[in-house]
Amino acid sequence: xxxxxxxxxxxxxxxxxxxxxxxxxxxxxxxxxxxxxxxxxxxxxxxxxxxxxxxxxxxxxxxxxxxxxxxxxxxxxxxxxxxxxxxxxxxxxxxxxxxxxxxxxxxxxxxxxxxxxxxxxxxxxxxxxxxxxxxxxxxxxxxxxxxxxxxxxxxxxxxxxxxxxxxxxxxxxxxxxxxxxxxxxxxxxxxxxxxxxxxxxxxxxxxxxxxxxxxxxxxxxxxxxxxxxxxxxxxxxxxxxxxxxxxxxxxxxxxxxxxxxxxxxxxxxxxxxxxxxxxxxxxxxxxxxxxxxxxxxxxxxxxxxxxxxxxxxxxxxxxxxxxxxxxxxxxxxxxxxxxxxxxxxxxxxxxxxxxxxxxxxxxxxxxxxxxxxxxxxxxxxxxxxxxxxxxxxxxxxxxxxxxxxxxxxxxxxxxxxxxxxxxxxxxxxxxxxxxx
Length: 436
What we know:
Elements: H1 8-24, H2 46-60, E1 66-67, E2 73-77, E3 86-91, E4 106-108, E5 116-117, E6 124-125, H3 131-134, E7 141-143, H4 152-170, E8 179-184, H5 192-195, H6 198-201, E9 205-209, E10 216-218, E11 223-232, H7 248-258, E12 275-283, E13 287-296, H8 299-317, E14 324-333, H9 337-341, H10 344-356, E15 362-363, H11 371-378, E16 384-385, E17 389-390, E18 398-400, H12 401-420
Helix pairs in contact: 1-4, 1-12, 2-4, 4-12, 7-8, 10-12
């Protein structure tokens, strides 16, 4: 794709989409890992964007838009044909992995292919090391100011959905199924898909807008667990600690150091290889915690990663019997592929919508997960579609307006494809009522 839009529809949607996106990213919506399980949503600031979206959806004609007690925004665009109810989902929160407060979006019109030097934070976007950026020459590239993330993950998806349903509402002559919209909190801390009431949502299938590269459609994700190792030592004043202190931080460090560093790590794996990744250590000499994420496409391999972690912790703990070492493993989500294979028309409709926008679908497994991973496991088939955002979870995050506009136009095409009801795909279970 060069600097032009994929279709006239994408061009028509681009300016209202840009307006929404640049407003949404200015709202700080970082989720909070420390409160992922004990607060809904994990950070109160997510509710500011939620209330904004309720009002904008109502103004667009989705009169039942509301914010529920789980922090989820839901709304309905009524359809004019019988058939399955289709859901469109994106998450409102942004990652806690990079600064997210005070986002100032910058639009670089007709990007010329050079290194983009951002004004703050010494952040630079170099096309020599960023393949997707090399493909965005001529595009209108949107970045942060360099000292925060941008928030395209997933406010690009949010803006695209609002833009698409507003367009459909303003063009009642376009056939469409009943569309249910959901904007979730806390996806970045693994809770977004759990917050959605499937009974209240009432969709038969859904699509998350949470992908990246142009034309992308994902129907397979990692399976994921989170593991926490807590070490309780013996703390005492260091001046009188001889033969008495048991330093919990040192034991945690020994556990991490004893794990493989030349394999089973994010930096040494690719493709369908899984990993075991320590990402946070907290505590003191008396009590310390290290948190891991475990990832693999295969459930048996995921279990083997957990067993390796357990065995390593036990071996290190055995060297110091005065310490107490506890391991807790929490399931996060599972690979959606098997469930989606039972309803192939859901993925087929996504592919058809991408082609209708003049693109070739790019199917690949996600080395990560989405709200759709959890929702699919819960009974709502939910593959993932592209948004045009890139370099997520970092101050290098950027988005292409042309690619985002193509995603919004794709959603309008998707509505027409489901309304036509001519998805001639055999071998799957009946879709209607699948999630209820």
